[in-house]
């Protein structure tokens, strides 16, 4: 059972071939970071153009690396949202063309469901299951009572965690995307600033990161005005500790209220070493009966392998679409 999967929701053009939903035969990822870095973020028009230039190369490479032919495939899976409309459309159009030309079933995939399935390459999924989804555009706690049945318990009311990392990174002069560098600096500093932990004790599963971001930016600007030099490593450590504290405490709250067999940690920010260590420690100490499935580091960011893993399950659940499939930029679960 082979799935050919397409992911073009943001600034990565990615195509993969996945066998039986859990084995990667190929996972080609063409990133555009260099082109967006000088703008400090993803420029949608630039992203679309890159996808157009890359998509056929990625497709050929994905099939060649996997050593398979179109005749070997069972289905085509594609991210149709959420994401940038121009970017999504390139993947959707390419996937439709392949499905039509080779008479293959076309399976529509939600990008965020895809992020969860990055953890499928670690172990089999068991239900009920919880997911902490932290990425550039989303921060969500998702309850999955049974296979492919997603319910969002809580989400960010303003900035996503990754977005906050990228914005404070900019203030410190770190290139986009800033998460990895801030994470490294955080490990060399200490939480001396004690930034706010918004909504940490509130009786819900929601998040807010814009207050933390403002507090951080004000602290840096005020120091600049006084011509005072702040310790960059301590700033990074303080910011990261605040993010991790709220992510961990809301996840614990959800696990206490909704008993589950597994916790999935996924999305770009799931690559954060501080977060991985903290969630692992919390589960060991307080929820030792919950299995932790952390998306492999290489599959935390956007990639088509995770879309193929989700695609196999969606295909088994008879999810299909036809040539009328359109991109849905604001798609939710
Ligand atoms: P979404 O999935 O919500 O549509 P996206 O696809 O743009 O958004 P991802 O590719 O999943 O987001 O994740 C990218 C984000 O992850 C960026 O904001 C980046 O700074 C962040 N990130 C990457 N590595 C780390 C890290 N080690 N620590 C914190 N953040 C990180
Ligand atoms: Mg990206
Ligand atoms: Fe993503």
Automatic annotation (TrEMBL):
Keyword Cytoplasm set for record: yes
CDD domains, A to Z: ASKHA_NBD_TsaD_bac
Annotated function: Required for the formation of a threonylcarbamoyl group on adenosine at position 37 (t(6)A37) in tRNAs that read codons beginning with adenine. Is involved in the transfer of the threonylcarbamoyl moiety of threonylcarbamoyl-AMP (TC-AMP) to the N6 group of A37, together with TsaE and TsaB. TsaD likely plays a direct catalytic role in this reaction.
Keywords: Acyltransferase, Cytoplasm, Hydrolase, Iron, Metal-binding, Protease, Transferase, tRNA processing
Matches recorded under InterPro entries: ATPase_NBD, Gcp-like_dom, KAE1/TsaD, Peptidase_M22_CS, TsaD
Listed name of the protein: tRNA N6-adenosine threonylcarbamoyltransferase
Transmembrane segments: none
UniProt binding sites for Fe cation: 111, 115, 302
Essential cofactor(s): Fe(2+)
EC supergroup of this enzyme: transferase
Molecular function GO labels: iron ion binding; peptidase activity; tRNA N(6)-L-threonylcarbamoyladenine synthase activity
Any Gene Ontology CC annotation: cytoplasm
Binding site for substrate: 133-137, 166, 179, 183, 272
Subcellular localization, as worded in the UniProt entry: Cytoplasm
Gene for this chain: tsaD
Protein family: Belongs to the KAE1 / TsaD family.
Top-level lineage group: Bacteria
Enzyme Commission number(s) of this protein: 2.3.1.234
SUPFAM superfamilies the UniProt entry points to: Actin-like ATPase domain (SSF53067)
Organism of provenance: Paucilactobacillus oligofermentans DSM 15707 = LMG 22743
Cofactor info, note text: Binds 1 Fe(2+) ion per subunit.
HAMAP family (alphabetical): TsaD
Domain Gcp-like: 23-308
UniProt catalytic activity: L-threonylcarbamoyladenylate + adenosine(37) in tRNA = N(6)-L-threonylcarbamoyladenosine(37) in tRNA + AMP + H(+)
Biological process, per Gene Ontology: proteolysis; tRNA threonylcarbamoyladenosine modification
């Amino acid at each position: 059972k082979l799935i050919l999967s397409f992911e073009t929701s943001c600034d990565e053009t990615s195509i993969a071939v996945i066998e039986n939903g859990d084995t990667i035969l190929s996972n080609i990822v063409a990133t555009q970071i260099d082109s967006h870095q000088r703008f400090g973020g993803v420029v949608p028009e630039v992203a679309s153009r890159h996808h157009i230039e890359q998509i056929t190369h990625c497709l050929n490479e994905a099939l060649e690396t996997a050593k398979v032919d179109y005749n070997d495939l069972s289905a085509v899976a594609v991210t149709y949202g959420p994401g940038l409309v121009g970017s999504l459309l390139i993947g959707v159009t390419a996937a439709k063309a392949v499905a039509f030309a080779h008479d293959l079933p076309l399976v529509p995939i939600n990008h965020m469901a895809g992020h969860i399935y990055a953890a499928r390459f670690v172990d089999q999924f068991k239900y009920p299951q919880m997911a902490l989804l932290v990425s550039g555009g989303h921060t969500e706690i998702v309850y999955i009572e049974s296979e492919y049945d997603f319910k969002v318990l809580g989400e960010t009311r303003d900035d996503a965690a990754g977005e906050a990392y990228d914005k404070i990174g900019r203030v410190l002069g770190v290139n986009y995307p800033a998460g990895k560098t801030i994470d490294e600096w955080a490990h060399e500093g200490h939480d001396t600033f004690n930034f706010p932990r918004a909504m940490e004790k509130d009786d819900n599963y929601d998040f807010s990161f814009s207050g933390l971001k403002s507090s951080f930016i004000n602290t840096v600007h005020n120091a600049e005005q006084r011509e005072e030099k702040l310790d960059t490593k301590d700033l990074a450590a303080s910011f990261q500790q605040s993010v991790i504290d709220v992510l961990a405490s809301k996840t614990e709250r959800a696990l206490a209220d909704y008993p589950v067999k597994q916790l999935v940690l996924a999305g770009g920010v799931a690559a954060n070493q501080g977060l991985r260590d903290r969630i692992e420690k919390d589960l060991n100490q307080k929820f030792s009966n919950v299995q932790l499935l952390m998306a492999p580091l290489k599959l935390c960011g956007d990639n088509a392998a995770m879309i193929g893993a989700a695609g196999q399950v969606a295909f088994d659940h008879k999810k299909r679409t036809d040539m009328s499939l359109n991109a849905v930029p604001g798609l939710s679960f």
